[in-house]
Amino acid sequence: MNQPYILSFPPIGDASLGFLSVAQQLSDVPFEIARVYWTYYTPQDVTRGGHANIDKELVLVAVAGTITVTTEMQDGHKHTFVLDHPSQGLYLPKLCWHTMQYSENAVQMVIASNLYSEDDYIRDYSLFKSWQ
Ligand code: TYD
Hints:
The protein is mainly beta and 132 residues long. Helices cover 5% and strands 47% of the residues. Bound molecules: thymidine-5'-diphosphate. Thymidine-5'-diphosphate (TYD) binds at residues 37, 39, 48-49, 51, 116.
């Protein structure tokens, strides 16, 4: 599906022990995983993102706290997602403009389909809208 959507990482365990969630490539996550990174200590008045990736799919997970993600596809479809539980994730397809804002102490894990390359980023919104 060439739109962002919420993924589920079902919790394993119970309230007495705590929980564990799994993100396995090509099942829980709809691509082969190339890279995982995480962001933390982001001030609450900061908006991160503000870019699209040409050839990279992502899954964002709020492993702690709450993350508000806005998305826009080139066809103009816009969505706002609130990630507020570590058992959910947000799939972002290629060429999906996105921004993220974070609650206090939020930690965002990003699962990526490709290795990091700055050449893969479109950081100019009007270029994103006209990119073919
Ligand atoms: P960026 O992907 O723009 O972060 P966000 O989407 O959270 O705003 O990356 C922020 C900076 O980190 C940017 O200068 C590129 C650099 N970076 C790396 O050096 N390696 C990486 O694997 C990633 C993802 C980013």
